[in-house]
Write a structure and sequence with these properties.
Chain lengths: 227, 263
Amino acid sequence: MALSRTSHIVTAYGEELDQLADDLARMGGLVETQLEKAIAAVVRRDASIKPDIKAREVQVNALQVDVEKRVLRLFALRQPLATDLRMTISALKVATDLERVGDLAKNIAYRAGDLADYAPVALTQQVERLGAIVIKQLREVLDALASADVEPAVRVWHSDDEVDERYNTLVREMLMSMTEDSGLVGPGVHILFVAKNLERIGDHATNIAEAVHFMVTASPLVEDAHS
Amino acid sequence: MTDTPLNPPADLPIKVTARNVVVSYSGKQALHDVSIDIPDRSVTAFIGPSGCGKSTFLRCLNRMNDTIDGAVVSGSLTIDGQEINDKTIDPVVLRASVGMVFQKPNPFPKSIYDNVAYGPRIHGLALTRPELDEIVENALRKAGLWDEVSDRLNHPGTGLSGGQQQRLVIARAIAVNPEVILMDEPCSALDPIATARIEELIDELRENYCIIIVTHSMQQAARVSQHTAFFHMGHLVEYGSTEDIFTNPRDKRTQDYITGRFG
């Protein structure tokens, strides 16, 4: 987070804030890769990435614990104020969201294994498209976080509507397909779970966008920010 | 810097008003055009680096700059609408209504009782001994010291602990019914427990007084005040609710100061 990279008179304090930002950046990077791999695995109906995803999840969880420790320590020992206070609070919230995203990505990857038991489903293409949008959202909001930039955060916040729309369409079409062909119910249920998890990840990206907005402007991102 | 007064955030009656207050010491300007409205029945903190003018401005409010050779104060300063720099105002009377507590507790070398009774005596606030006893007890109670000293009122005030001495000095200020209480770093010589006692006392006193505190401890300003004014190089830079100043300061100089960055 760019906000912390400035000249604190107490060098160690500035470094602690920087380390917090670094932890978040690492967490974000891991989670982003996790999600990319999980979606690719769903498309390929590939069960082999399970161990890799699991290992990454352990790292993400450890980083979340690390962020919580750092935030606690900053509050106890440094009493951050103003931008530092908002950054520290936001870091705590963002870490919680990223941990959830990692968890949801893991769930998606596990569904890839389940889908391997079935023939390919046409609607997988739409899941792939939804996944691409959600990955883009996540990447943009993490960049916004790293550069403390409000404008892209607000953009991500608005794009959640598109994710919801695509998700609803996908559910509708999947239901229709399953009604027409009961053989699709097995893989269809897994596809629906994948889509649901992607939609949830979109919500977490929105939460992170709100945290970035608060961190930079000190005001909540609410509906009238539309203009 | 600013001709327009920085208004207080809360909807409270204004007690102290300053307009374009300029102070110089022997021709060197220490305060530039300070305009501010300070509300009653609340605590306003003045913060800023050493030499920023916060103590200079505080000293204007009870005309303590009068006692400094070469000090020139201009502009308008009113308390309840009354211009305090008016030459017809007796500074001694003014200082009864604008009490002051200093960094180092400064009880008189007298008994605890006489420390508190001194002001009411010289201002003729009590006609009889029972009246005076009542004023002393009340003031000591308001200062949260009565229970600790009621059985040794004739002991010397200087024999008390630092925190007790500071509360004695506050009782002494309260005893003459002040309108405004100025505190210049009142806890910097006290340990954390004594500091907490004084902060609790400040919180109780604000129901009845306009309290202005100068402090170098940002945490203390955050804990005790409702409004905070940030001074920098003789200018009043920013003034607002304490919550806003500490979570979302508008001016970069305020931001740098309270987050401990190089300005």
